Amino acid sequence: MAAGRLASPSQLFIALLLVSLCCLSCNAKDDYRQQCEPSWCGKHNISHPFRLKHDPEKCGDSRYELSCEKNNLTVLYLYSGTYYVQAINYNNYTIRVVDANLHKDNCSSIPHYSLSSYNFSDGDPYWIYQRRGKGGPWWDKVHVKLSKPIIFLTCETPVISPLYVDTAPCNGAMWSSTSNGHSYVSVDERLFVSNLREFCRIELMFMISSQLTKNNSYIDIHNEMIYGFELTWVQWGCYIDSDTNKVNCSRLALGARAILGALCLIVLLIYKFKRRHLSMYGNIEEFLQSHNNLMPIRYSYSNIRKMTKGFKDKLGEGGYGSVYKGKLRSGRLVAIKMMGKSKTNGQDFINEVATIGRIHHVNVVQLIGYCVEGSKRALVYEFMSNGSLDKHIFLKEGPSSLNYKKSFEISLGVARGIDYLHRGCEMQIFHFDIKPHNILLNETFVPKVSDFGLARLCPLDESSLTLTAARGTIGYIAPELFYKNIGGVSNKADIYSFGMLLMEIAGKRKNLNAVAAHSSQIYFPSWVYDQFSEGKDIEIEDSTEDEMKITKKMLIVALWCIQMKPSERPTSMSKVVQMLEGETEALQMPPKPFLYPQDKPVVDDEDNPETTWPSSTQSNDDSKDSISLIQNADN
C-alpha cells in the first residue's frame, strides 16, 4: 500500500475478524484448562493460570509459566531476573517471590538485577497494584499497592539523612563498581533524581513488600527482601471483593476491552499508513518504554515552557538545536536542550537518555529529566554557571581565569569522568566527542563531561566497536576512525581525544595553528615533543617551579594519549588517571606523535554525517560545532 493512503475496508474487516477469532480461541483455551489437574513443585500447587515448563500445552497460560528446578525450587523468570517462588495465593491472586541472589544468612547479598514499578504496565501478565472494594462497578474501587521500591546508592562522602539507611552492619554490602564510597539503601518513595544528594549515585533499584512502612536498620530491610515481594495476576476489569476476598470480573469491562482493542487496531492501521513520517517518534517512545527504569523525570512540554518562561533566556545554539536557561519549582537552575530536527530517527536523543540517564558522577553532567511529545524533544540538565572550558583556555585577550593548578585539577577531573564512563557502569560508554566545548564547569570550576549525542554503548566483556561512519569533531577524532590499517575502534578513541584536550589545556592554545610564525609550530604536539627531546622546558611566563612540573607532566601524558596507533597509547583511562596522579619524573617520553600516517585516509563527507567539519571561514573557536548547555560568555 502506498504511503499516506488509508487502510482499505477489506483490510479492516480482516483485522476485526482476526481479533474475533483470537477472542474465541482464548475462550476455547479457558475450557481446555479446566480439564487439567494441578501440578506440584515442592510445596507449591501449580494451577491455572500457572503452568510448569513440561506441562501439556493445553494447561495453564504460557505467560505464567514457572520452572521446577533442582531441590524442588519453583522459579519465575521475569524481566531477565530469576526469582524463587515463596507462596502462591489463589484466593487473592497474588504470588510472592524473592530474588535468587539474596541469601538469608548473608546480609551482604543483594539482588542481581534492577526491578522497579517502571517495569510494570497495564496489560502485562503481572502487576503491583490490585483493585479492592465491595460490589458495584469495577472502576469504583481502591488501588492497593502490593510492593514498593528500594533504592541502593553509593555516595562519595558520608550522608546523614532519614532517607538514607547505612549498610555498615554488613561490611560486604558494596554494590558500587568501585571500592571507594559509602553504601546506603532507601525505601522512602520521596527519593527522586531531583533531590538526590550531591556525590551520590543510584546503583540498583528493587521491589520490597509494601508492609515495610519506614526506613528500619539495614538488617531489617535485608530480612524484608528475603521475605520477598508480591505481584498479582488480576487483569484489567477485575477487582478483589473485600467480603469474599475473591476476584470478580466485569463482563462489560472485558467486552469493552475487546472493542477497545479492535478500535486501537484500526487506529494503528490508519496511523501506520497515513503517518509514516512519525516513525522517528515511535523509535523514541519504543526506547523509553523498554528502558523505563531510567531515573530521569519525564516532563510535559507545558512544564518545559514554564521552566523556561516561554523560552525567554537562550543560552546557545548548535547543530542539535538550542539551549535555554530554566528553573525547577524547587528553585534549582537548569539548562534545557531543545532538540532540533534530526536525520537519525532520534538516535541522538536516544543516545543521551540511554547513556547519561543511568549514571551519576561528580565529573559527568547530570540529566535531571527529559520531554517527548511528538516532534518536541527536550533534555533537562543541571546548570553550569561557569560555562564551557573553551571559554577559559582560548581567551584572545587578557589573562586566563584558570591558573595552572586549577587547569590540572580540571584535567584530572575530566580523566576521572571518562574513566567512569568506560568502566563504572553496567555497559561501557564511549563518548566519541571529547573536546573543550563539551567540558562544562560549575560554580567552583568542577569539570563535567557533557553532550552524549554521539556516544555508543559497549558490553563490558567486549573491547571494540564497529562503526559505519567516523564521529566527532575534526582535531579531536582518533585516527583509527579514518584509517583502517592502524587498529580497531575502542575506548582508546576517547583516550586520543582526551590527549588532544589535555594538550590544549596545558598549552592554552589550539593544537593546529595554520598561521604560526614557524612551520615547526603548526602542529603544537610535534613542537612540544621537539622541545623536550632537545632538553628544553616549555617556557611559561611568571610561573613557579611547581607549575612548570605540572605543565610538563600534563604535556607528556598528552603525548602518550595522542599516539597514532591505538596500541601505543595507555591501556585505559584508569592508566591515564594514574599517570596524572603520579610524579613527573616517573614518566618516560613516548614516540614522536604524527599528524598523518603513511597511508591516505578513507574520508567521505557524505558517508560521515556524524563528523563535525570546520569550515574554511570558521575561527579557532569550536563553540558552534555542538550545542552548549551553558551561558554565553557575553551574558
From TrEMBL:
Lineage: Eukaryota, Viridiplantae, Streptophyta, Embryophyta, Tracheophyta
InterPro entries per record: Kinase-like_dom_sf, LRK10/LRL21-25-like, Prot_kinase_dom, Protein_kinase_ATP_BS, Ser/Thr_kinase_AS, WAK_GUB
Membrane topology classification: Single-pass type I membrane protein
PROSITE patterns for the chain: PROTEIN_KINASE_ATP, PROTEIN_KINASE_DOM, PROTEIN_KINASE_ST
Keyword Ubl conjugation belongs to the record: no
Signal peptide segment: 1-28
Subcellular location: Membrane
SUPFAM superfamilies: Protein kinase-like (PK-like) (SSF56112)
Pfam families with a match to the protein in the record: GUB_WAK_bind, Pkinase
Record protein name field: PREDICTED: rust resistance kinase Lr10
Domain Protein kinase: 309-595
Entry binding sites for ATP: K337
Region annotated Disordered, chain positions: 588-635
UniProt keyword annotations, A-Z: ATP-binding, Glycoprotein, Kinase, Membrane, Nucleotide-binding, Serine/threonine-protein kinase, Signal, Transferase, Transmembrane, Transmembrane helix
Biased composition (Polar residues): 610-635
GO CC, any one term: membrane
Superkingdom of origin: Eukaryota
Segments crossing the lipid bilayer: 252-271
GO molecular function (one): polysaccharide binding
